[in-house]
């Protein structure tokens, strides 16, 4: 049932909570690669280890879990974040949603709930990361196409070529110079007149 490849960091200022979670997860085939006692340690550990999942308490000294989660998301560390907390107030839940946290478990944690929660959170997080990458690729292609179109227009105007001839000119230059068509188009546009 457990995903043996799942690499986990536990961030909680309570040693007993960390120990219990680590033992529970490792007994089920997960790999707990690190333990942090505050948000600062959690961030630095995640940068080094690059875990799949961070189980993090909200209330920790120095830097709380919500702030640490926000920084992990902003720095695109890529880990799925599940908050473990004694707080179920709406303000904490809303903050967690706004940050992009994937799961929220209220302490004391029911052992029957934790595995489904983390498995689903990681699966959804990976789907979202894949979608974000796909969107970035599409945006990149559209931007490249737009730049190439502008360069074609400039070549058509400057050299009196038809659209296909201008495209062929950029393509041939791309092959000759071993540059992408986008890079050739960027240079043409930067060259001016």
From TrEMBL:
UniProt-recorded Gene Ontology molecular function terms: RNA binding
Domain Response regulatory, chain residue ranges per copy: 7-122
InterPro entries recorded: ANTAR (IPR005561), CheY-like_superfamily (IPR011006), Sig_transdc_resp-reg_antiterm (IPR008327), Sig_transdc_resp-reg_receiver (IPR001789), WH-like_DNA-bd_sf (IPR036388)
One of the Pfam families matching this protein, by short name: ANTAR
Modified sites of kind 4-aspartylphosphate: 57
Coiled-coil segments on the chain, per record: none
UniProt entry keywords in alphabetical sequence: Phosphoprotein
GO biological process: phosphorelay signal transduction system
ANTAR domain span: 128-189
Function: May play the central regulatory role in sporulation. It may be an element of the effector pathway responsible for the activation of sporulation genes in response to nutritional stress. Spo0A may act in concert with spo0H (a sigma factor) to control the expression of some genes that are critical to the sporulation process.
PANTHER family: PTHR43367, TWO-COMPONENT RESPONSE REGULATOR-LIKE APRR6-RELATED
Protein name: Stage 0 sporulation protein A homolog
């Amino acid at each position: 049932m457990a995903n043996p490849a799942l690499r986990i960091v536990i961030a909680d200022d309570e040693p007993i909570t960390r120990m219990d979670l680590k033992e529970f997860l490792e007994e089920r085939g997960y790999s707990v690669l690190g333990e942090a006692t505050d948000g600062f340690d959690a961030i630095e550990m995640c940068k080094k280890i690059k875990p799949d999942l961070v189980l993090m308490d909200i209330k920790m000294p120095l830097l709380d879990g919500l702030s640490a989660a926000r920084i992990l998301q902003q720095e695109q560390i890529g880990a799925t974040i599940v908050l473990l907390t004694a707080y179920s107030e709406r303000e904490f839940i809303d903050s967690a949603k706004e940050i992009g946290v994937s799961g929220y478990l209220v302490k004391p944690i029911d052992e029957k709930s934790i595995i489904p929660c983390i498995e689903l959170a990681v699966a959804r997080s990976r789907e979202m990361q894949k979608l974000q990458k796909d969107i970035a690729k599409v945006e990149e292609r559209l931007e490249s196409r737009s730049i190439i179109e502008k360069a074609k227009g400039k070549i058509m105007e400057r050299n009196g070529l038809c659209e296909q001839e201008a495209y062929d000119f950029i393509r041939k230059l791309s092959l000759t110079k071993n540059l992408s068509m986008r890079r050739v188009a960027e240079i043409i546009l930067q060259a001016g007149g």
